[in-house]
Amino acid sequence: MADEPSDARGGRGSRLRVEVVPGAAAEPVLKRVITLFASRAGLSVHRLSHLVATLDSLHACASDLAARERLGVTVDIASGRVDLQVGPLRESAAREVLAAGPTGRGRSLADRADEARLVPGEDGEAVLGLSFGQAAPGGALGGVA
Amino acid sequence: MVPSREPDERHTARLSGLPGALADATVAIVLDAHPENVSIVRQAVTGAGEGANVPAEQIEDMALAASEAATNVVVHAYREHVEVGPLEAAVWLAPEEVAIVVRDYGCGIHPRTDGPGLGVGIQLIGALAERVEMSVSGDGANEIRMVFPGPGLARRSDG
After folding, report:
1. CB-based contact (8 Å) between A60 and chain B?
2. What share of chain A is helix, strand, coil (3-state, %, to 5)?
């Protein structure tokens, strides 16, 4: 078996854009599409589970967050790394979610990622960037709840 | 912390937003037309069907038809191009019908005598879907549109 994930080539087939109307289809679509695509980056199952938890949280607040009719996520994969760009979002709603307490949605959205940043755009819109690498933040178990 | 990567500008331009033709779809995805991405299209269609409570048997048909259409794009659409182009797929969910569109910006769907496949993809799609339409969109994309019964009308095996 090759050590290198077959699709973690950083430039060839390494980007996906998915957009979905918040609602019943959002959860299965986001989970199925993004998890399968991200699995090519060769993250551990543990880190992939963090990504899935993040997608759960994203789906849970999709209606509040989405600045337009659909919630959009761009996924970039490289060897051992997955980057999500979620947006455009309503900036105020995104800040609220990220500021949620330790048991709130913000924990899953941001704390399980290595890096979370909100990039404000025009007209009150923003893009949330989330990065997942091999090493979980907060130690070997990555701060599992 | 891992430093941020600089995005590929070409990809950013192409994938940062979806084409207007897909603007009102319930689900839409864009990715490169590589063979391994056919399974992503399949998962998108399956997820959309699950979310809309489409019967499992019909979800299988929808997913198979979408896979065949995506495979056609991978095998045929960009064979005369230096670089592989985009593969777009979208699903419209309504009570009365489910429409699936697969698009490319290559040479479209034509018979290929030297093709590696069995050449039955389009016939299979025609057998699975209630209606199939092939066209060129206003933005120049080749489209195959596959229409299935909606969750309100779909034949259910459990009753």
Report:
1. no
2. 35, 30, 35
